[in-house]
């Protein structure tokens, strides 16, 4: 039986196969191909990452963030943190190459506070950094291995290392939450010798969200990963992801995804957080 061309074909390289200098910054480099029917739509949910995406297909794509207006995507897109679903309209053959980054990469690669890119889609021309030329080279590359090498080299030329680990690193807040789940921000600030106000500013700069919002969205993204890795009962999944009960999980998931957990399980397709509408 011939494979269904509408189902995306995915290639990817994870951190283990990348230069160690990119560890903690790059989640994966990827390529996806599919042949979509006119009117096909896909929803991408928030996953705590930002993405640099290069469209190598012949047709322009349109997208909508939440209830916002529909817009034509540039050929090179910097897709910032999304607290609302991103809906994509497809038609014809699709070919995308991209790199999925931790939010802190906004500072380390572009010297931009992550909070300035929340719910935003920027074109490569707006961002600069030689992305137009990089797009051309990716389009000329003979395959995914060459494309991944081009992206890895470009990232290595841009990356900067802080002298010390940023005090807005997730490990600090997660440890504080384990010690004082009722007041994790206050506990993290106390442990770091900072005021809560200063810690919140650091968190916005490096993670894009305030500490409490970051913890809430982390629960949702953890639930998405669990839903894709296994098929537990939703009540068990809610507990594993850190929710007090399934009703709390259902409410937060619907606010995040625009549909219920059960609907997501029925519609999911491709990478975690992707579903067909």
Within CATH, the superfamily of the largest domain carries the name Jelly Rolls
The poorly predicted ranges are: none
Rg on CA atoms, Å: 19 Å
Overall geometric form = globular
Distance between the termini: 25 Å
CATH architecture grouping of the largest domain: Sandwich
Helicity, in percent? 40-55%
Count of discrete alpha- or pi-helical segments spanning 4 or more residues: 11
Please write the CATH class name of the largest domain.
Mainly Beta
Average predicted local confidence, pLDDT: 85
How many domains, in number, for the residues? Answer: 2
Protein structure class: alpha+beta
Question: How would a crystallographer describe the biggest sheet?
Answer: 9 strands, antiparallel
Compressed to H and E, one letter per element, the order equals: EEEEEEEHEHHHHHHHHHHE
**Overall strand count:** 9
CATH fold group of the largest domain: Jelly Rolls
Written overview of the protein:
Strands 1, 2, 3, 4, 5, 6, 7, 8 and 9 form a nine-stranded antiparallel β-sheet that branches. The protein is an alpha+beta fold and 277 residues long. The two termini are 25 Å apart. It is globular. It has helices spanning 105-110, 124-127, 131-140, 144-158, 170-179, 184-192, 196-207, 211-229, 234-240, 246-257, 261-267; strands at residues 9-13, 26-44, 49-55, 62-65, 71-72, 76-79, 86-102, 121-123, 274-276. The model has no long low-confidence stretch (mean pLDDT 85). The longest helix has 19 residues, at 211-229. It has two domains: 9-158, Jelly Rolls, CATH 2.60.120; 170-276, Homeodomain-like (Arc Repressor Mutant, subunit A, Orthogonal Bundle), CATH 1.10.10.60. Helix content is 40%, strand content 23%.
């Amino acid at each position: 039986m011939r494979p269904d061309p509408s189902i995306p074909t995915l290639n990817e390289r994870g951190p283990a196969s990348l230069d160690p200098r990119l560890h903690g910054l790059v989640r994966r480099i990827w390529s996806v191909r599919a042949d979509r029917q006119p009117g096909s739509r896909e929803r991408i949910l928030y996953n705590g990452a930002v993405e640099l995406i290069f469209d190598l297909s012949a047709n322009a794509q349109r997208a909508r963030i939440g209830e916002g207006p529909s817009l034509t995507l540039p050929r090179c897109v910097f897709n910032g943190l999304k607290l609302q679903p991103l809906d994509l309209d497809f038609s014809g053959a699709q070919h995308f190459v991209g790199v999925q980054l931790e939010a802190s990469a906004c500072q380390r690669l572009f010297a931009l506070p992550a909070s300035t890119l929340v719910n935003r889609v920027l074109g490569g021309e707006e961002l600069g950094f030689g992305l137009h030329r990089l797009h051309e080279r990716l389009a000329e590359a003979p395959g995914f291995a060459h494309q991944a090498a081009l992206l890895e080299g470009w990232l290595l030329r841009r990356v900067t290392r802080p002298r010390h680990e940023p005090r807005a690193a997730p490990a600090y807040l997660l440890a504080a939450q384990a010690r004082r789940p009722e007041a994790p921000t206050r506990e993290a600030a106390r442990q770091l010798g900072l005021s809560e106000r200063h810690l919140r500013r650091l968190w916005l700069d490096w993670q894009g969200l305030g500490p409490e919002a970051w913890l809430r969205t982390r629960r949702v993204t953890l639930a998405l990963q669990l839903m894709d890795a296994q098929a537990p009962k939703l009540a068990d999944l809610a507990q594993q992801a850190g929710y007090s009960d399934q009703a709390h999980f259902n409410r937060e998931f619907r606010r995040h995804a625009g549909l219920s957990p059960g609907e997501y399980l029925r519609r999911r397709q491709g990478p975690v957080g992707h579903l067909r509408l």
